[in-house]
Amino acid sequence: MCGSYGIFDEFYEAELAKGRQIHRRDYIIVTWPLKGNVYRGIVPESMARILVVADVHANLCALRAVLEDALCNGAIDAVWVLGDVVGYGPEPNECITLLNEHPLICVAGNHDLGVIGYVRLERFNVDAARACLWTRRHLSACSSRFLAGLPLRRSAGSFLLVHGSPRDPTWEYVTSESHARLLAPWCEQDHCLVGHTHRPLAARLETRTLRPGVGTSARALQLRERYMINPGSVGQPRDGDPRAAYVILNPEAATASFHRVSYDVGSVAEAVERSGLPLSLARRLHVGY
User: Fold this and answer.
1) Is the model's pTM score more than 0.90?
2) In angstroms, rounded to a whole number, what is the distance separating the alpha carbons of residues 10 and 176?
3) Cβ–Cβ < 8 Å for 200, 230
4) Which tens digit of pLDDT belongs to each residue from 95-135?
5) Neighbour tally for 273: CB within 10 Å
6) What's the fold here for domain 37-287?
């Protein structure tokens, strides 16, 4: 019913993709309704604290640490997930269950699509493909339905949520401010939230001022201009810092703050080894790459 390789969840998204020539041969654009507890409506800008995460990769210990750390500083109105909930790690079902305990917006990442067969595993490296196959075997029916219902993109107020980029939400890596600015025409919203690189990034899309502000502190970014923001990875950081990464977004104050939190990397690495997943996926957790 939903083709072989991929999804857009609404007709207008498919038409938008065609108009901008961002659909690829690797996935088929079809209509597919959202399932599970994924929030469909427009998110009010009155939300005070939104937890933004990406690339959880079935690392339950890291996800719990992020949620606990974020909640220490106040209530969370919603959780926004920028794809790749599963893949690499040993606890995919548990991560999906935990995320669905919160008001949630979640978009699909390439690993999410690979696990449910919507993208060819030939596009992945050997260990990533093996992890997708392992996850596919261990995924519950409920978790499979959740992943199958995820859109490739989602608008929420003045933010666009994608995994890769607004031009190619599945595969494109955005690694620099110059690269981000090239993608500004593909984002109709003020700001774009991305994942995929496993590295934090705050890149100005253009110099047009949106609202007055007081500048950027060491941790709090004032969203006076258009930004592309990557919170970094929860479950498999690749910036040399093994701590889990996340962003707290405050639409009312127009700020985004970047955070890191430690978790028990050793226990997760041991769980990866016991599970039969590739050993390299355990080792890289210790070094943050």
Assistant:
1) no
2) 30
3) yes
4) 999 999 999 999 999 999 999 999 999 999 999 999 999 99
5) 15
6) Purple Acid Phosphatase; chain A, domain 2 (3.60.21)
